[in-house]
Write a structure and sequence with these properties.
By secondary structure, the chain is an alpha/beta fold. It is 45% helix and 25% strand. The protein is built from 11 helices and 11 strands. Strands 3, 4, 5, 6, 7, 8, 9, 10 and 11 form a 9-stranded mixed beta sheet that branches. Helix 5 links the parallel strand 3 and strand 4. This is LysR family transcriptional regulator.
Length: 294
């Protein structure tokens, strides 16, 4: 399948209009229409619903859009990797990280690394652990910062000297804001926002011996920005890591740690059985050296 046709398809999917897509691609409308119909014929499946001069992706079309985007990104990355040279290190590194205490640590490492290798470009993204692992598995990210534990059989990783403290974030006017610590009995009495990932909730519950059926859960979130917005506009309480609180620096919010204390480590992970570009190898070597010195 010609990558040019994939780009044609993605442009049509973005505009939902053959005429607009043809103008962006600088080709004629009949040519583009024929290319899309040939693509559907080749795949033997309908990618668009055609109604009232507009095109809407079918379920199959949405899946193909996701995979086509991934394919083109991987092709671009492969081309960049092939042009890298050891004597003048260049290239791109796709790195994902959650919004946490590891964020300022890893970005400082990137800054120091680029002092030595200014031609290496970092493409940074964020997300929760599930999103980051999926992006790593699909090749959309080369490296990701993850909270421990990680699947040792699936990933290589470096343990980073950054730990996350668990606690509760809330408005500073909230009744529990004056507490020095928060217990599981306190958690049973308050409206909670919890992490979306069940594995994280279960891990914290094991430490505190929590009965999750007794919790007053009002929302679950995977994006810290949504959590902060909810807290600003309510008297809810968020079970979260201190790194989220530190990253937002919101003077109207406070963070109170849990008791017994719960903390989690961070790792920099990459896929096993994959060929790393010279730029990625050099960055991992640099990170490891910084860890040993700290």
């Amino acid at each position: 399948m010609d990558t040019r046709v994939l780009k044609y398809f993605l442009t049509v999917a973005q505009t939902n209009n053959i005429t607009k897509a043809a103008e962006q691609l600088h080709i004629t409308q009949p040519t583009l229409s024929r290319q899309i119909m040939d693509l559907e014929a080749e795949l033997d499946i309908k990618l668009f619903n055609r109604e009232n001069h507009r095109l809407q992706l079918t379920k199959a079309g949405i899946l193909f859009q996701q995979r086509a985007t991934t394919l083109l990104q991987l092709l671009d990355q492969t081309e960049n990797d092939l042009h890298q040279q050891e004597e003048a290190l260049t290239g791109e590194i796709n790195l994902g990280s959650a919004v946490s205490s590891v964020s300022p640590y890893i970005t400082k490492l990137i800054f120091e690394f680029q002092k030595l290798y200014p031609n290496v470009i970092f493409n940074l993204s964020d997300g929760d652990g599930d999103v980051l692992r999926r992006q790593l598995d699909e090749g959309l990210n080369d490296l990701v910062c993850l909270l421990e534990p990680v699947e040792a059989a699936k990933y290589n990783f470096l343990e980073l000297p950054v730990r996350e403290e668990w606690g509760v974030m809330m408005k500073k006017e909230a009744p529990l804001a004056k507490y020095s610590t928060i217990t599981k009995e306190d958690l049973y009495k308050i409206p909670l926002i919890l992490p979306h990932r069940s594995i994280v909730r279960d891990e914290v519950s094991d430490i505190l011996k929590l009965d999750q059926t007794r919790l007053n859960i009002r929302a679950t979130t995977s994006l810290p920005g949504n959590t902060v917005s909810l807290l600003r506009n309510s008297y809810y309480y968020s079970l979260t890591i201190k790194g989220v609180y530190d990253n937002f620096h919101d003077p109207d919010l406070v963070f109170v740690p849990l008791v017994p204390n719960k903390s989690t480590g961070n790792v920099l992970a990459w896929r096993k059985n994959t060929i790393l570009s010279p730029a990625i190898k050099k960055f991992l070597q640099f990170v490891n050296e910084q860890i040993q010195e700290s």
